[in-house]
Design goal:
Layout lengths: L7 E7 L5 H12 L7 E7 L6 H8 L6 E6 L5 H11 L4 E4 L11 H9 L4 E9 L4 H17 L8 E8 H8 L8 H8 L3 E8 L11 H15 L2 H30 L6 H34 L6 E5 L12
Parallel strand pairs: 1-2, 1-4, 2-3, 5-7
Antiparallel strand pairs: 3-8, 4-6, 5-6
Helix pairs in contact: 6-7, 9-10
Bound molecules: uridine-5'-diphosphate and magnesium ion (MG).
Length: about 325
């Protein structure tokens, strides 16, 4: 395939990114210049409460290759990204965040690697500028914990910043799960993958759109989606607690018989708190999986589009069913 004949799709989820979008489009347009005539930039407005959608619509005049999708409500980064991937028509698909933490200029290097036969070229963060120690530490710990639990090797210190081939994207889009951890799904899909190291820049505007609550949801989706080890851990934990309670029973009876002590409240409190803690933990783990089973069986659509901004005569390309 000749390089400049490659049809390129760029997919960017945006939530409250009104400040970032103009700079993003400038840098993106420069980065995609070699593929300009066969490129589309898909911006997904994930239920923003600021003027993100207006900014996207206003940019259409100066950026004719722009496609805007507006979700009917905020569905989260991973679902917004999925909406963009569903709409992408390119042979190669480039995903990045709207805040310019992932440099669009890396596209040409990623393209070059893909020319060498790779299906996925993912960005691997060498360092994170301007992020809190907590964010750095939690991200560092999370990827290691996840890989210890998961059966597929999910590349460490990566985000969704990557260039993927059409066949690999189709494989991921064929996965019907509602709890989406997209970087893990690409890892699971297989094919030839390679990492490209880069320095992560500081966020361009305002603060992160990933508060702790959303980070925890992503982390539990990742763990429950890619590992059943926590379930096995729960079973093992109940065996251990049974073992400990046997020893406690021996202790209680011997002290009752030989030392004639009044049964101490300390051991009772200890036993109750230990075992109720273990029970709650086990129930919680089970609950996480059952909750996800429930969501999957409902089979609701992941998102609805409330508005679409496209050329009146879209490029005639085969669209994915
Ligand atoms: N984002 C989104 N929906 C959300 C949260 C975030 O579409 O509910 C987008 C956001 O606009 C950005 C990307 O997801 O383009 C990553 O978010 P952010 O940069 O805040 O995450 P961080 O870099 O802090 O992990
Ligand atoms: Mg960011």
């Amino acid at each position: 395939m000749k390089l400049n004949r490659v049809h390129l799709s760029v997919v960017v989820p945006c939530m409250n990114e009104e400040e970032s979008i103009p700079a993003l489009l400038d840098r993106l347009s420069a980065a995609i210049a070699p593929w300009q005539d066969r490129a589309e930039i898909i911006l997904i407005d994930d239920g923003s409460t600021d003027t993100t959608w207006d900014v996207i619509c206003a940019a259409k005049d100066s950026h004719p290759q722009l496609v805007g999708l507006r979700l009917s409500a905020n569905r989260g980064h991973q679902v917004a990204l999925t909406a963009g991937l569903d709409a992408a028509q390119g042979d190669r698909i480039f995903m990045l965040d709207a805040d310019l933490q992932d440099p669009p200029e890396l596209l040409s290097d990623m393209m070059a690697l893909m020319d060498h036969g790779y299906d996925v070229v993912y960005g691997r963060r060498r360092q994170r500028e301007g992020e809190t120690l907590f964010k750095k530490l939690s991200a560092w710990g999370f990827y290691r914990f996840l890989n210890a639990l998961s059966d597929v090797e999910i590349p460490k210190d990566t985000g969704d910043f990557r260039l993927v081939s059409r066949r690999c994207l189709d494989a991921v889009l064929d996965m019907p799960e509602k709890a989406r951890f997209i970087r893990g799904m690409f890892a699971w899909a297989g094919f030839k993958q390679v990492g490209l190291e880069y320095n992560r820049d500081a966020r361009m505007a305002w603060e992160t759109k990933y508060p702790l609550r959303k980070m925890l949801r992503l982390a539990t989706d990742a763990i429950t989606g890619f590992s059943t080890k926590p379930l096995r851990f729960a079973t093992r934990l109940s065996f251990y607690s049974l073992f400990v309670s046997l020893w406690m029973a021996i202790y209680v009876f011997t002290s009752l018989i030989f030392y004639n002590t009044a049964p101490g409240w300390a051991s009772v409190i200890l036993a109750i708190s230990l075992f109720s803690g273990i029970q709650l933990l086990t129930l919680g783990i089970l609950g996480e999986y059952i909750g996800r089973l429930y969501v999957e069986t409902k089979g609701r659509p992941l998102y609805f589009l409330s508005e679409e901004l496209r050329d009146s005569q879209p490029v005639q390309l085969e669209r994915r069913a």
